[in-house]
Design goal:
InterPro entries: DUF2249, TusA-like_sf. Residues 6-71 form the DUF2249 domain. This is DUF2249 domain-containing protein. The chain has helices at residues 15-26, 42-50; strands at 3-7, 32-37, 53-59, 65-71. The protein has 73 residues and is an alpha+beta fold. It has one domain (3-32, 39-66). The protein has a four-stranded mixed beta sheet, with helices on one face. A hairpin with a 5-residue loop joins strand 3 (53-59) and strand 4 (65-71). The longest helix is centred in the first third of the chain and has 12 residues, at 15-26. The relative contact order is 0.25.
Length: 73
């Protein structure tokens, strides 16, 4: 298992979602994607659920978010 970092800060929508979906498509099933993002990507969650991914999000003190995404077992 590998944790793959992805920083999408500074990108305007839909850039962050496009980058996240591309990274998910390129990673191995056991890997996790660790995303640094500036806003809570609410529209992304439905897509993740539909495609069998779990996620966890936490807001940082600097108001950015750490989003961890992994494939459901």
């Amino acid at each position: 298992m590998q944790e793959i970092p992805l920083d999408v800060c500074g990108l305007e929508p839909p850039g962050p979602m496009e980058q996240i979906l591309a990274a998910l498509g390129a990673m191995a099933p056991q890997d996790r994607l660790a995303v640094l993002i500036e806003r809570d990507p609410l529209p992304l969650y439905r897509i993740l659920d539909r495609h069998g991914y779990h996620h966890r999000i936490a807001q940082r003190p600097d108001r950015r978010y750490d989003l961890l995404i992994w494939r459901a077992a």
